Amino acid sequence: MNEQGVAIAEIDRLHERLIKEAEVVGYHLNPDVEFTKGLIKSLIINERRYGYWACPCRLASGKKQDDLDIICPCDYRDLDLNEYGVCYCALYVSDAVRKGEQKAGSIPERRPPPAERKRETQKKGRRLTGLSLPVWRCKICGYLCAREQPPEVCPICKAKKDRFERFM
Amino acid sequence: MTVVHIPGKKSRHIMLYALSTCGWCQKTKKLLDDLGVEYDYEYVDQLQGDEREKTTKEVSSWNPRCSFPTMVIDNKKCIVGYKEDEIREAIRSE
Ligand code: SF4
User: Fold this and answer.
1) B41 three-class SS
2) Does the beta-carbon distance from B64 to A45 stay under 8 Å?
3) Is B17 touching A (CB cutoff 8 A)?
């Protein structure tokens, strides 16, 4: 498949959709339209290449299980927005950056290297006993809910079920 | 795809490890193009199998997080990320 052959119309449509979805829940896309559309084109390329929206600025393994934390929006977005005003790719920006009060720049990589990531997933969180239901946490936005299973889609940020972790 | 050579002004030996999909990598490439210097680059996301493994090992030896862009200058200095001033400085200075 010709990866460069992403139609402009397709990029524009996704751009509009992402702006809408972001604004509803209080996130902002980078107002630098040319830069942002470049990243959106890359998301489309990665969707074709891997079958999911692997982060454009990180090297995806192609194995979904290993790439889950970097499927856009990634697990690191909100921490980076808080600390730097941009996500790692600068697709998403803080309100201050959107208003031009802060500059968007290239930031350090927060995702731990592979060996550390493995250790993280093996570390089991401390479980509180005596709860009538388990508590699930959305790794993207932090939404918590007490129910047998996490929801199919996060009601706040629309992340899929596989982005939830057991919290308590 | 393997290493691509971009001809230009001879300055330092510049090797840029990049991802074809990454916005900061594109900006870094554009900066080198604007400076008109000679450099090599490789799109690591377009490599498969052994080639990819070999190249990611190379990148990790300079930058353990194996993040992109990673630029290696004269096989001595490594710049991670799109750091415009640092890149200009490294190419200019002795
Ligand atoms: S939120 Fe930003 S850094 Fe995270 S995957 Fe999406 S584009 Fe990449």
Assistant:
1) strand
2) no
3) no
Residue B35, domain member (yes or no): no
pLDDT in tens, chain B (94 residues): 689 999 999 989 999 999 999 999 999 999 999 999 999 999 999 999 999 999 999 999 999 999 999 999 999 999 999 999 999 999 986 5
- Are B81 and A108 in contact (CB < 8 Å)? yes
Q: Tell whether omega for the bond before A113 is within 30 degrees of 0, i.e. cis.
A: no
Residues of B in contact with A111 (CB under 8 A): 65
ipTM over 0.90: yes
Instruction: Report how many domains make up chain B.
Output: 1
Whether residue B67 lies inside any domain: the answer is: yes
Structural domain includes residue B93: no
- pTM attached to this predicted model: 0.90
For residue A107, the chain B residues in CB contact (below 8 A) are: 81
User: Chain B, 54-73: which have a CB under 8 Å from a chain A CB?
Assistant: 56, 64-68
Please report whether residue B63 resides in a domain: yes
Domain with B52, as residue range(s), is 14-22+48-72
